[in-house]
Inverse folding.
C-alpha cells in the first residue's frame, strides 16, 4: 500500500465509477448471471483466434503503422463502400484505434475546445460526457423518453447556437435498442447544413439491426459525411470485446487532426489482431449474418421473460433489451437492479446511469449477447419475481 503525498483535486468531479464495473462487480459478488455489462459469454470464431496466433508466430509483434495496417484500412474502405456507398480513402481517411471508447475520446478531443457546446441525446453511452468535460466543453442535453425514445428534432434545434461545435449520435442505440430512421438522418443533415458543426456517429452496433430494417450509417448521407466522424468497433461484430480494436472514418482534414492526437495518445494499436481482422473481413457473410444471429437471441430472451413482471420495450437493434417496471415497483432503477441481482441472481443496468442527472424512467437494460442456456436460466429466475 502506498499513501499519496500529493493532493489531487480530480478532473471529473461528480462523475462516478462506470455502471458497467459496478454492476459486474455486484454480479460476481452474488454469483448472479451477468446480463448487465454488454459482452458475449460465448467464444469468438476459432478461425479468428488461429489467425491471431498465426500472425504472432509469423513475427508481427512490433509497432503497426500509426494509422493501422494498410490492408485492414483497405478492407474497411471496401466494406463501407459496398454497404453504404461512401468511398473513404484508406490512406488518409480511415484510422484503426484501440476500440471505440478510445476513438470516441480522441474524436471528442479533436473537435471540442473550452466552452464549445456539445449536444448529446440522453440516454447516452457513458463515455461521451467525461470526454466532453475533460476537454472543457459545455454539454447540452436532449432527453429521449420511454417507451419510444423518439427524437424530437425541434428540441435538438432549439439547443443549436453559434457555440455549438459537436453533436454526438449513436445508432443502433445503446441502451434503448432504437435504430435511427432515414427521416432522423435527414433532419440531422438539415440541422447542421452550412454550419460549422461536427457530428460524431457512434455505429458500433452497425451489424445488429432487426426485423429487416437497415442500418442508416451516417456516410449514406454524403453532405453529412463531409462534416462527420464515424466510429465503429470490431468488438461487437466479432464477439471480441476484450480485443479492443475499432476504427474511425472521417474526411481527410478531420482525420489529420484526429491522427495528430491519436499518435500522441497511443501511436498505433495491437498489430497481430489487425492482420487477423483484415483476413476475416474477407468473409462478409460473418458480419452480414450477425443481425439474424442476434435477432434469434432477442426473440428467445423476450419469450423467456414474458411471464416476468416487466413490460418489454421495442428492440430494433443492438444486443440490449430494455424493460419498463413501473407497474411492478416504485423503487429507483438502481435500487431495483441491485435488488434483483442479489435476490434473484440476474444483473442488469439501470438506464438512469446514461443520464447526467440520473433521470429515472423505471427502465432497466438486459444484455442478450449470451448462450441460449444462459438466457433461459436468466428468464427462469426473472419469472420468479412475483408480480
Ligand atoms: N459505443 C457504444 C454505444 C458502446 O455500447 C460501446 C461498448 N461496447 C462502445 C462505444 C465502446 O466500444 P469498445 O469496446 O470498442 O471500446
Ligand atoms: N458497451 C458495453 C455496455 O454498454 C460495456 C462497455 C464497458 O464495460 N465499458 O454494456
Amino acid at each position: 500500500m502506498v499513501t499519496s503525498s500529493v493532493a489531487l483535486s480530480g478532473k471529473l468531479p461528480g462523475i462516478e465509477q462506470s455502471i458497467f464495473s459496478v454492476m459486474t462487480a455486484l454480479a460476481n459478488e452474488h454469483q448472479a448471471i451477468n446480463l448487465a455489462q454488454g459482452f458475449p459469454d460465448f467464444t469468438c470464431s476459432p478461425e479468428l483466434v488461429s489467425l491471431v496466433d498465426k500472425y504472432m508466430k509469423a513475427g508481427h509483434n512490433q509497432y503497426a503503422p500509426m494509422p493501422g495496417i494498410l490492408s485492414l484500412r483497405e478492407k474497411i474502405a471496401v466494406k463501407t463502400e459496398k454497404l453504404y456507398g461512401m468511398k473513404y480513402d484508406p490512406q488518409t481517411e480511415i484510422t484503426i484505434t484501440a476500440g471505440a471508447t478510445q476513438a470516441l475520446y480522441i474524436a471528442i478531443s479533436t473537435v471540442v475546445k473550452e466552452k464549445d457546446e456539445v449536444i448529446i441525446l440522453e440516454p447516452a453511452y457513458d463515455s461521451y460526457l467525461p470526454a466532453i468535460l475533460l476537454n472543457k466543453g459545455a454539454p447540452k442535453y436532449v432527453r429521449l423518453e420511454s417507451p419510444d425514445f423518439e427524437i424530437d428534432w425541434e428540441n435538438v434545434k432549439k439547443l443549436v447556437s453559434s457555440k455549438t461545435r459537436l453533436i454526438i449520435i449513436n445508432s443502433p442505440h445503446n441502451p434503448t435498442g432504437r435504430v435511427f430512421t432515414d427521416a432522423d438522418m435527414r433532419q440531422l443533415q438539415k440541422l447542421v447544413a452550412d454550419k460549422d458543426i461536427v457530428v460524431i456517429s457512434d455505429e458500433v452496433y452497425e451489424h445488429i439491426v432487426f426485423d429487416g430494417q437497415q442500418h442508416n450509417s451516417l456516410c449514406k448521407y454524403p453532405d453529412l459525411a463531409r462534416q462527420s466522424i464515424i466510429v465503429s468497433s470490431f468488438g461487437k461484430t466479432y464477439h471480441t470485446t476484450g480485443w479492443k480494436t475499432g476504427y474511425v472514418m472521417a474526411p481527410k482534414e478531420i482525420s489529420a487532426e484526429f491522427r495528430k492526437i491519436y499518435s500522441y495518445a497511443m501511436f498505433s494499436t495491437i498489430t497481430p489482431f489487425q492482420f487477423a481482422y483484415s483476413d476475416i473481413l474477407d468473409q462478409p457473410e460473418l458480419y452480414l449474418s450477425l443481425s439474424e444471429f442476434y435477432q434469434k437471441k432477442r426473440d428467445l430472451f423476450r419469450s423467456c421473460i414474458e411471464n416476468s413482471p416487466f413490460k418489454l420495450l421495442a428492440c430494433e437493434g443492438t444486443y440490449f433489451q430494455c424493460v419498463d417496471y413501473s407497474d411492478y415497483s416504485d423503487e429507483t432503477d438502481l435500487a431495483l437492479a441491485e435488488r434483483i441481482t442479489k435476490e434473484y441472481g440476474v444483473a442488469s443496468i439501470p438506464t438512469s446511469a446514461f443520464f447526467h442527472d440520473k433521470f429515472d424512467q423505471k427502465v432497466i437494460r438486459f444484455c442478450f449477447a449470451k448462450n441460449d442456456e444462459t438466457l433461459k436460466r436468466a428468464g427462469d429466475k426473472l419469472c420468479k419475481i412475483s408480480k
User: Anything to note?
Assistant: DSSP finds 15 helices and 13 strands in the chain. The longest strand covers residues 164-170.
